[in-house]
Specification:
three-stranded antiparallel β-sheet; Trna Endonuclease, Chain: A, domain 1; 11 helices
């Protein structure tokens, strides 16, 4: 339904939308059980399918993009099929409106976070956008974002849609810096896997500058945000758990790979200490217990931030079982 200014052309009926499909939620897309069955029947990796096409949730149900799941089953290949039926230019057009707070929220969502959104102010028009909330609500309705009704937040639902946001950031001039962050994040992830400690430290120095000003540069939250931003691209290959319960405490960040061929990562952060103490804490508190089921390679990453010099150092060790 599209409204004409503030009055609708139709009224007195119930709307079933992607924000709340009520008792029709299970018919919006494929459910988790349905996708699990399809993967079993066709020999597809369920975890990877979930990372590509899941992410929409309603009334306790996991909802998948049905068109993409069907095409992946037919092709026996996981990739983005979204661009065959839609285009990232829809996102780019909205980003160019550059409402206050949009860019920071987009970066946070691309790093896997959820951001607040007020969906009630949107008037269901395709032209009259007045705030960041309006464009995010519009993008919710057409599937480029997923909505959490309980918390009033939105996020990028999956790897397929994340790529559409990446394409959009690359073509919007105001998002050139965001595009550079994404590119740098790809290189950082590879440097971490390769054990290039100096490259990791340099990348974190740069990321820290992007997420904070001088007043909050030494804030602990800023340090954590810098790490999340720096590893933004990892969301395409990993399930990222922050402050994961494990062993005798909480690991700062745990990256569990979607594919067993990629190494798992446990990252421990320190301030004004040492990378050695970070690695020792991972071992002494047995943070690796949370990955006891994982049979692939495992890397311990110790990162220390020096407030005086405003620099990071890094040590990477391969865990041998």
């Amino acid at each position: 339904m599209v409204r004409d200014r503030i009055q609708s052309k139709l009224n007195n009926f119930r709307e079933y939308t992607i924000l709340d499909a009520r008792d029709l939620a299970e018919y919006v897309g494929f459910t988790d059980d349905e996708v699990h069955t399809l993967c079993d029947e066709h020999g597809l990796d369920y975890a990877e399918c979930r990372s590509w096409y899941d992410g929409y949730r309603q009334h306790g149900l996991e909802i998948y993009n049905p068109e993409s799941v069907v095409m992946a089953v037919e092709d026996r290949k996981f990739k983005s099929y979204w661009s065959q039926t839609s285009t990232y230019q829809v996102i780019a057009e909205r980003l160019r409106e550059n409402f206050k707070g949009t860019r920071d929220a987009v970066i946070r969502m691309m790093a896997g976070e959820s951001v607040d959104v007020r969906v009630t102010s949107y008037m269901n028009t395709l032209t009259d956008f007045a705030t960041r909330d309006d464009i995010f609500t519009y993008l919710l309705h057409i599937g480029y974002l997923a909505y959490d009704e309980e918390n009033g937040t939105c996020r990028i639902p999956n790897r397929e849609i994340w790529q559409e946001w990446e394409f959009a950031a690359a073509v919007v001039d105001e998002y050139e810096e965001t595009d550079n962050i994404i590119r740098a994040s790809k290189e950082l992830l590879q440097a971490t896997i390769d054990g290039d400690e100096e490259a990791v430290a340099r990348a974190l120095d740069e990321s820290h500058i992007h997420v904070t000003g001088n007043r909050s540069y030494n804030n602990e939250d800023a340090l954590q945000s810098a790490i999340y931003l720096a590893y933004l691209y990892a969301i395409n290959k990993y399930t990222i758990i922050r402050e994961a319960t494990s062993g005798r405490g909480f690991a700062d960040v745990v990256f569990t790979p979607i594919k067993q061929t990629d190494p798992a990562l446990i990252i421990e952060l320190k301030r004004n200490s040492s990378t050695e103490s970070a690695l020792d804490q991972i071992k002494e508190k047995r943070y690796f217990d949370c990955l006891s089921h994982y049979e692939g390679n495992l890397l311990f990453v110790g990162i220390n931030y020096d407030e005086k010099d405003k620099t990071h150092t890094c040590r990477i060790e391969r865990y041998v079982k």
